[in-house]
Amino acid sequence: MRTVKKRKKKNFPVRDRVPLCVDLDGTLIRTDLLIESFFVALKHNPLSLFAAPLWLFRGKAFLKRRLAGRADLDCSGLPYHPELLEYLHAQRAGGRSLVLVTASDRKYADQVAAHVGIFDAVLASDGKVNLSGKAKRDCLDRRFGERGFDYAGNGRDDLPVFSHARCAVLVNPDAGVRSAARRVTTVERVFDGPKGRFRAWMHALRLHQWLKNLLVFVPITVAHQLDNATLLWQAAVAFFAFSLCASSVYLLNDLLDLSVDRAHPRKRLRPFAAGTLPLVHGLALIPVLLAVAVAVALWLPVEFLEVLAVYYVTTLAYSLWLKGKVLVDVFALAGLYTLRVIAGSAAVDIAPSFWLLAFSMFMFLSLAMIKRYSELRGLKDLMREQVQGRAYHVTDLPVLGNLGSASGYLSVLVLALYINSEDVMVLYGRREFLWLLCPLLLYWVSRMWQRTVRGEMHDDPLIFALKDYVSRWIAAVGGAILFLAT
Length: 486
Prior knowledge:
There is one protein chain. By secondary structure, this protein is of the alpha/beta class. The chain contains 22 helices and six strands. A six-stranded parallel sheet has the order 3-2-1-4-5-6, with helices on both faces. The longest helix is centred in the middle third of the chain and has 28 residues, at 229-256. The radius of gyration is 27 Å and the shape is elongated.
């Protein structure tokens, strides 16, 4: 029997009976409830995007109250700061009074306090007063008197409170806050935040997913134009524009799916869901990446920009609505893959052939089915019946398997019909070699589905294929066949 090693408890001395007031956003939890509630409200009703500025015009507290009325958060799944919680439990066990004081709306503050179960009182924004900065300082002065409390916080908004606190506890302090707090009070403890911000940003931007955007090179490849420097440069520009746009979409999708990701066995480790990166940074970067993508796209024909706009709108619709629709979601995913091929055609002004679009449609639908099947297969192993945020059940696994494998085989059928068409004679001198691609592709599709059914598939089948040595060998042999056929 495996023995579980107990974690050694740390002893945090309780200095005296002075109450410890604890901030919520960025301190007790590694997230921002205002931003979280905004994206939950946006997901439920996209019109919240236009209503929010009107609410903000009436004050930040009013905005928070309106969002709280429209967005329910799972406070039990929030990314709490584990070391701070351990410290607070030790202080509470020593008889110290703990007060949760936050600029977040009272609704969320009460829910967090009830979940943690260690606070004697809760002070929060009430729809009229935004309990932040000087307003928070004055509230604590009235309740405990100047220097009559200690305060745990993290940001520049907390500096007015630190200036009237007896001692400060810094939790993942923002840049410059550590030195500024030491100038106005005694810093008792410092809890640093998670390390590896650079790696977290690489993960959040999904740089590895940029490999999908190599599909923009498919049109010039099948048209045998890779030796055309001008077209190759245009395809490269399209690749970077599409990649920047995709990263903007990934950030937006992560902010919309925070609660869903936290309930997922692997996605809960995503930087924003885990609280590794500040939500406000992701919120600010979304329009920046999109603007740069559009600026890069202006170097290409206007048709490429139109395809990019369709991609962004489709992805937004997928994030807000389509991903919750059975089967519609996988067709949308397949369409997003195909849009990359169409974008490549628009960038180099080469019209995509019927054969290429038909092959792409069936092949990408099969890969989208693999993605969804793999997710459901993982939930079956965890003895869960349904994906949170999706309309699928584990009983849908056989249907997805049958439809996905059939779609993959249909793509091979399209390839076979293409090889027998007159179009091939123009591009290939020895097209008989192309027939070898059919059994090769049939083997690859069959193997991908076998690995999926066994539960050995990555969440993204394209990423799996790029890392899989058998898939790489199949791609190399396929390239050799194309060379011989040419």
